[in-house]
Amino acid sequence: MAPWGSRDGFVGESSVSLTRRGLRVASAVLVTASATLLAGSVLAATDTAIHPALWPKATWPLPMDAALEQRVSALMARMTVEDKVGQLVQADILSVTPDDVRKYRLGSVLAGGNSKPGGQLLANAEQWKALADAFHRAAMDTSGGHVAIPLLFGIDAVHGHNGAVGATLFPQNSALGATHDPELMREIGEATAEEVRATGLNWTFAPALAVPQDVRWGRSYEGYSQDPKLVAQYAGATVEGLQGKVGTPQFLDRSHVVASAKHFLADGGTKDGKDQGDAQISEEVLRTVHAAGYPPAIDAGVQSVMASFSSWNGQKMHGNKALLTDVLKGRMDFQGFVVGDWNAHGQVPGCTNEDCPVSINAGVDMLMAPDSWRGLYEHTLAEVKSGAIPMSRVDDAVARILRVKFRAGLFEEGLPSSNPLAARSADVVGSPAHRAIARRAVRESLVLLKNNGGLLPLDPRKHILVAGDGADNISRQSGGWTLTWQGAGLKNANFPGAQSIGAGIAEQVKAAGGTVEIAADGHHSGKPDVAVVVFGEDPYAEFQGDIPNLLYRPGDDHDLELIRHLRGEGVPVVAVFLSGRPLWMNREINAAEAFVAAWLPGSEGGGVADVLLRTREGKVAHDFHGKLSFAWPRSAVHGQGSPLFPLGYGLTYADHGTLPALPEASGITGEQVPVGNYLERGKPVHGYGFTLRGADGASTPGDVSPAATSDGALRMTALDYKAQEDARRFAWRKSDAQLVITARAPMDLDRETNGDVLLITTLRIDALPGKDAWIGMGCGKGCQGRVELGPQLASQAAGQWLRIGVPLKCFRKAGADMHHIEQPFAWGAGKGAEVAISRAALGTDADQVVDCAK
């Protein structure tokens, strides 16, 4: 059968047959397959019984090594129980020091998404190497009779070494899936490993082998495809790229890193696409869909597997011995070690972040306890001594970890900075060779969904306008897990050596003799011959990216309006959509003559220009190569109807069909811009801005943590409340500073005010020395209603979270015009105040309600 998008499929046919034959047949296949899997899910929706004999086998590719086993045994014979427990605990660099490693003999450290040397927001190769050296010296210190055991230093290098300034940023995995090119994954893995080693680190938490079935999930872009077969094809190649091929001298040599297949298991199958949620599916679906990538990864010798935050039919993976031990280590013969995720063990029933023998007994060998490591170490040590955790389980876990360290040559390597790649890190990190691989990946990942009238490829000798919020925005085109955890709030200057999409187009157009204007708002000095509008999702990571439906920017149509405005001027438009996942885009597809799914291409924006533009001589240098690895939705309601574009769809320049007008009813009813939810998990909800305002009145963006006002009056840092960095802590160094949430357009809250609705803040008071704190709503220049909270909050015990509600009528009483609210949430306090806030939203149920009648 010809692949979708080929001339032997439906793209080259008339629009009538395109609709009636190609889409209908492909959709029928997908619907039938989905129905079959769904039926299996329903049959055993609450079953947690595992039958290992039914699971696929894998073959550990490393033969028994007597010399290695002797080294492990000899070392373990010298280790105290304290030494052994230390190997089971992993701490984050923001919460652990080299002295701590020296004292507690910890086996590993990690750098979380926002964790950088010295607590900085960003870090370069030299800073990473210096920190790695400091930790290595501490781990190898033998004073006091300690046993020297080198550290594993892990980081989420998930689309290149995305935690280092100047590194090559490859397209995110959802883009790479569209390339259908396993060998390219191998090359990307090799390049990523070299850049990680050049900064002194030796372990990456990659590859992600999720098989996302609901792209409302905020981590969908970490998955290569919804098709388990494609994920399986990529798994082994990516592992071999990162680690080197087993049986060759390159395996785990000094230019490769330890890889970690993640997240075991079914993180991409949770109900409603909720991150850290529950996969309510049958064992068959768990086995055939979500486990597909693990046997190939094990066959390739992956040295670690990361357990998932999620649950399977109500049972947390971090406590699922049947899956971690019986299936993964038994049936699949995995002989590396299992590492936990960020305090995920604390979600297991009966556990806390500082105490979880259940996870270790279930088969997790190393617990990731970023900020809870000290308490976890102490509790685990006591439980080993009491027998609650059998010594045999501890010895098994320690032996697995030590084998990996020996295989990786860590005992012989010396200081991380002495690695040959680290010695020339300036030439390795972001090297031209690596950027060339990334640029090729961009070219291969672009999927052409519409090209009516053959608008593409463009003549570079013309006058071209590059417009849209993503036209000259490297952060937007790179997505989450880019320099910071969420990847937001960054400037192009933070990406030395990178190129935006607009800059890439401008470079080639100018070289060919054409002219370019780049303007986010679409403003132009002279009518362009064609406009390329680059737009898309704001960066996000993990649960911060969960969405309730497949609408794009609900209630905010400025991208669509820009396309329509240009079309109204008679300017043909090529829409370039930046996203981590397919979304309902019927209106935008209709409005533009050509529509390109560019996903999240990373640092090499020039790769987009390579495909969109002809050469100066009028030839096609690079055709479209990408084919969808995720079906494109027909409706904004997840799972409603057949796909608009099925798996494998993608046009080339040889296809000349016309895409008919698409229906513009989303399937979603009601107002979609949240009018009652302003701050969620420490971040502003989409459609709202977040600023810190100093005592001098100057504003600073608050969308990236840490942040501070220019006068130092107010500082914001991230902290964990119920999940990783889901709250913000504010410290006032001067009075009259405040944090402000601003609506994109004024809101009328009069109805809610009359209905006794509350503005509820989820907060924790750490210090309130002057008892002066207030909450407010702003209604334009010189218009604000403030409600004093100091006396009520001062009576609260420090360090306790509570939800305090303020009736909206209190703000009206204080002078706010509730028909015209521009700032639905503002908070101020006096010098010395320290307050943590996780959420601000309208509601009717709070722990305490302020009585403004007094």
Could you characterize the architecture of this molecule?
Strands 18, 19, 22, 23, 24, 26, 29, 31 and 32 form a nine-stranded mixed β-sheet that branches. A six-stranded mixed β-sheet has the order 12-17-16-15-13-14, with helices on both faces. A six-stranded antiparallel β-sheet has the order 21-20-25-30-27-28. Helix 2 packs across helix 14. It is built from 26 helices and 32 strands. The protein is α/β, with parallel strands linked by helices. It folds into three domains: 52-428, TIM Barrel; 446-672, Glycoside hydrolase family 3 C-terminal domain (Rossmann fold), CATH 3.40.50; 677-849, Galactose-binding lectin (Jelly Rolls).
Proper CATH architecture of the largest domain? Alpha-Beta Barrel
**Helix share, percent:** 25-40%
CATH class group of the largest domain: Alpha Beta
Please give the number of β-strands.
32
Which fold does the CATH topology of the largest domain refer to? TIM Barrel
Task: Give the biggest beta sheet.
Answer: 9 strands, mixed
Q: Beta fraction of the residues?
A: 15-25%
The gross shape turns out to be globular
User: What separation lies between the terminal Cα atoms?
Assistant: 76 Å
Overall mean confidence score, pLDDT: 91
Q: What class would the helix/strand composition place it in? A: alpha/beta
InterPro entries: Cellulose_Degrad_GH3, Exop_C, GH, Glyco_hydro_3_C, Glyco_hydro_3_C_sf, Glyco_hydro_3_N, Glyco_hydro_3_N_sf
Keywords: Hydrolase
Domain Glycoside hydrolase family 3 C-terminal: 446-653
Domain ExoP galactose-binding-like: 703-839
